[in-house]
AIM24 family protein (Streptomyces shenzhenensis), 226 residues
Amino acid sequence: MNQPLMGYAPAPVTARMENHGDHMLKVAMQTGNDLLARVGSMVAYEGFVQYEPNPPAVRQIARDWVTGEGAPLMKCSGDGLLYLADYGANVVVINLNGDGISVNATNLLAFDAQLTWGVERVKGLAKFAGQGLWNTRISGQGWVALTSRGKPIVVDCGGGEDETYVDPDALVAWSPNLKVKGKRSFKAQSLIGRGSGEAYQMAFSGQGIVVVQPSEDSTDRLRVRG
C-alpha cells in the first residue's frame, strides 16, 4: 500500500460496532446477528452481506410512525465487515448492555436487530405543538450507532432539582427514564433555535444523559404533526 495511505487502513476488529474515524461506522457482521440500518447508509463492505429494505418486522412497527419522522430501515445480514455513514455526520457508538435510549429518528444510523424497539410519543409536549414529538426507543443487550451534525456533547442530568434545557432541533437522544416537559419562551425567541415565532425548549430532569449536537436539524421537530 502507498505509505501515505497506511494511516487510513481499517484497524483490527475489537467489537461488534466501532468507529473508523469520526464519520464512519464499522460493523462486524456474523450470520444470525442481523443489523437494522438506515437505508442508503452503506458505503462499503467486505465478505458476503445481504440487504433487505423495509423488511416485514420494520413495517409492522413503522405503521405507528404516523408523524412522518420515521427513517427508512434495511436489514443487513451475512458475514464480513460493513461500513456505514450518513453524509459525513459524526458517528456515536453505544453498547446498551441492558439499558435503553430514546433517539431522534433522523439521528438513528444502525442497531442490532435483536434489540427491542418501537416508536413512542414523548409525553408532556403535545400541548406545545399539536401531536407532539415522537421518538424511537431502543433497549436490551446490543449495539446502537447514532449520528450527530458535529461533535456532540453528552450532558449528565444528575439527580438534582436543576433541569437541563435543550433546543429540540439540536437534540439527538436521551435516557428514557428522564422526565421530559416542554417550556415556551417568548423573550428568548431570537436567541434560541432558529428564532422565528415562539421558542420551545425541552426540559429534562432525573438520572440519565442527554446527547446534543452542535447543529440544528433541518426540520422543526415541534411543528404540528398530522
The CA atoms of residues 69 and 105 lie 6 Å apart. The chain has one domain: 17-212.
